[in-house]
């Protein structure tokens, strides 16, 4: 029991810290997205100068915001689920089923992680982005076009964080199944109803 | 072999696997069993490409704008204005409930946000005036579903993206049906007011009082004009209009109304970001699912099945309405559109139904589905706000649900209701 509980709580602490950083960075990305698009509108209509980079920059920020924040939604039970059947089952059976479903999710995410890694490090990731530049020197004296891998990495990071959360949820429910919920770390309640679009 | 991925997907959903994983696991497993492991890479790429979209960015922006408005305490101003306008009718506060949902729909575009923002104000007021609490909760829930029908609408943006339709056309097509639902609910309340002796009307507001209430709600109520005006005049794309709406909401909440402080902004960004990340991931997974559905000829197989029943488009529309209504009982509107849109829409377009018309039928039907148990998001939200049991609200909402189903049939069989505005704006032939 001690090992399982320790693993679950240890991973829970790691995830809580990582996802807090993820939420902060994701919120900054979302705020910057608004600023970038408003700048696009301002430059186009007020300064009559259509900027080439806002569209790509905002997509870049949106992908990172999604990758960094979706794992928090998953951890807090915010992913859309049909739980009618589960609610009809006895508690221990429902917990067992949940563990099995998390194993399936882990398999999906593990496969995605492998593919994502080869996408980021492969040929596709080495292509340059159309309009986004990054400093190549600390004194900002030279700039280079950013590689596509910087954008592709958003989904890879998202998948990696989702995988960590899925493992944590599986361990946590295994603990509940065999030893009950005593001693388990708290996970904040869900804050989302539905897919969010409703 | 590949055609088995749909039953497998439904099995995963029923067992309680999160929709996003079910959308990916079912096609991936069958691709693997079919010896097409290489195509699983395409699934991953489709998720990425599905999310990597400029038009899709309107979703987080509208969510952020709604969150800013909600936090900014504009709901009370809208209720005040609606009260001044229709509070003196018989069943006054119930009428106010419908009108403020219609006004709020032009700002937020989310039924759940509508219940959360307005329900907490109007339900206690109605209870205090002697309305039965289940009735107050039911009309709050029934009118909240106008939110995603009158623009802006998160569900319509998803539909437009997944099906390649114009966001502006869908937004315009939703205006009249949304107002029609509001009017139908108001007529129902008027009829119920006599029959059930609903509390007497409030005193009619003077012109001065109405003007004052209108003035207090003026800036928030300008949002839909800025939004639709910007899109239709060609000044903004829908995504830019959504970002401008965020900027506008920020300015009026912080600078003008001073109902929000800068300290609240990180929380607002975080909540909107988390919520929109769920939708974005779902859309990405749905784009991957859609690709495999096309490879497996699923739309063609289902079309053949449906056309085997009848080839009469009118009868098929009735059948599809019933199907959507049932689906809406078990699945939220967003995921249902993502899954069923690419399967059903091509069938009806092939039969001569206008794609914008079909989109509106689907959106309204699945939005009304938010009121039906066991999976009725708006019922859950209303239950949380009112403290009543979901079953109690579900029973009380039945008369309003019947009226809304009648409106769905009207919108289905009279295409002019949804198509006139897009036609006038040149989006539909």
Number of helical stretches of at least 4 residues of chain A: 6
Q: Which word captures the global form of chain B? A: globular
Overall pLDDT of chain B, averaged? Answer: 87
Q: Biggest sheet of chain A, strands in spatial order?
A: 1-2
β-strand percent of chain B reads under 5%
Classification by helices and strands of chain B = mainly alpha
pLDDT < 50 runs, ≥5 residues of chain B: none
Beta content of chain A comes to 5-15%
Helix share bin of chain B: over 70%
Q: Average the pLDDT over all residues of chain A and give the rounded result.
A: 89
Give the total of beta strands of chain B: 0
Topology overview:
The complex is a heterodimer of chains A (198) and B (429).
Chain A: H1 2-45, H2 54-75, H3 84-88, H4 91-121, H5 123-126, E1 128-135, E2 143-147, H6 149-179
Antiparallel strand pairs in A: 1-2
Helix pairs in contact in A: 1-2, 1-6, 2-6, 4-6
Chain B: H1 5-15, H2 19-33, H3 37-51, H4 58-71, H5 75-86, H6 92-105, H7 111-128, H8 133-144, H9 154-163, H10 167-195, H11 207-221, H12 223-232, H13 238-256, H14 265-295, H15 298-309, H16 313-330, H17 333-350, H18 355-368, H19 377-386, H20 390-396, H21 398-413, H22 416-424
Helix pairs in contact in B: 1-2, 2-3, 2-14, 3-14, 4-13, 4-14, 5-6, 5-11, 6-7, 6-8, 6-10, 7-8, 7-19, 8-19, 8-20, 9-17, 10-18, 10-21, 10-22, 12-13, 14-17, 15-17, 16-17, 16-18, 16-21, 17-18, 18-21
């Amino acid at each position: 029991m001690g090992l399982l509980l320790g693993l679950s709580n240890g991973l829970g602490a790691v995830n809580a810290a990582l996802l807090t950083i993820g939420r902060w960075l994701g919120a900054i990305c979302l705020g910057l997205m608004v600023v970038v698009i408003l700048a696009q509108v301002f430059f186009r209509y007020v300064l009559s100068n259509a900027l080439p980079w806002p569209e790509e920059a905002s997509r870049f920020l949106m992908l990172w915001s999604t990758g960094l924040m979706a794992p928090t939604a998953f951890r807090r039970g915010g992913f859309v689920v049909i739980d009618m059947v589960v609610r009809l089952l006895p508690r221990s059976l429902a917990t067992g089923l949940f563990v099995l479903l998390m194993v399936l999710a882990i398999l999906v995410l593990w496969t995605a992680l492998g593919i994502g890694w080869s996408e980021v490090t492969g040929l596709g990731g080495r292509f340059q982005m159309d309009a986004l530049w990054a400093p190549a020197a600390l004194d900002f004296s030279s700039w280079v076009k950013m590689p596509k891998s910087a954008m592709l990495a958003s989904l890879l990071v998202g998948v990696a964080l989702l995988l960590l959360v899925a493992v944590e949820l599986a361990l946590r429910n295994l603990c509940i199944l065999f030893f009950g919920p005593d001693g388990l770390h708290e996970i904040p309640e869900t804050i989302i109803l539905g897919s969010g679009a409703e | 072999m590949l055609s088995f991925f749909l039953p497998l997907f439904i099995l995963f959903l029923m067992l309680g696997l999160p929709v996003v994983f079910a959308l990916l696991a079912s096609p991936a497993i069958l691709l693997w069993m079919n010896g097409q492991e290489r195509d699983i890479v395409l699934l991953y790429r489709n998720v990425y490409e599905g999310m990597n979209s400029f038009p899709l960015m309107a979703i987080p922006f509208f969510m952020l704008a709604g969150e800013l408005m909600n936090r900014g305490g504009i709901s009370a101003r809208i209720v005040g204005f609606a009260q001044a306008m229709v509070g003196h009718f018989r069943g006054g506060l119930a009428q106010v409930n419908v009108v403020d949902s219609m006004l709020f729909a032009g700002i937020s575009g989310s039924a759940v946000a509508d219940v959360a923002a307005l329900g907490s104000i109007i339900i206690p007021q109605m209870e205090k005036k002697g309305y039965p609490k289940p009735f107050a909760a039911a009309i709050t829930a029934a009118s909240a579903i106008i939110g995603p029908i009158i623009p802006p609408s998160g569900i319509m943006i998803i539909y437009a993206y997944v099906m390649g339709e114009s966001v502006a056309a869908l937004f315009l097509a939703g205006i009249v049906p949304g107002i029609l639902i509001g009017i139908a609910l108001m007529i129902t309340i008027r009829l119920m007011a006599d029959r059930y002796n609903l509390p007497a009307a409030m005193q009619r507001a003077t012109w001065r009082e109405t003007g004052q209430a209108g003035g207090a709600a003026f800036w928030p109520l300008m949002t839909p004009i800025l939004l639709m005006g910007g899109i239709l005049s060609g000044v903004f794309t829908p995504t830019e209009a959504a970002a401008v709406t965020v900027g506008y909401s920020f300015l009026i909440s912080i600078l003008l109304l001073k109902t929000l402080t800068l300290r609240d902004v990180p929380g607002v960004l975080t909540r909107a970001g988390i919520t929109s990340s769920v939708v974005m991931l779902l859309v990405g997974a749905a784009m991957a699912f859609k690709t495999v559905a096309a490879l497996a000829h699923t739309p063609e197989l289902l079309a053949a099945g449906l056309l085997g029943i009848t080839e009469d488009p009118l009868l098929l529309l009735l059948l599809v309405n019933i199907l959507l209504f049932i689906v809406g009982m078990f699945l939220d509107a967003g995921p249902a559109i993502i899954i069923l849109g690419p399967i059903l829409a091509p069938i009806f377009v092939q039969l001569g139904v206008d794609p914008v018309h079909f989109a509106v039928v689907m959106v309204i039907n699945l939005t009304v589905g938010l009121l039906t148990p066991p999976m009725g998001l708006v019922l859950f939200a209303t239950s949380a706000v009112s403290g009543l049991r979901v079953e109690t609200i579900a029973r009380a909402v039945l008369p309003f649900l019947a009226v809304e189903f009648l409106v769905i049939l009207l919108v289905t069989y009279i295409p002019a209701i949804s198509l006139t505005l897009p036609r006038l704006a040149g989006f539909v032939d």
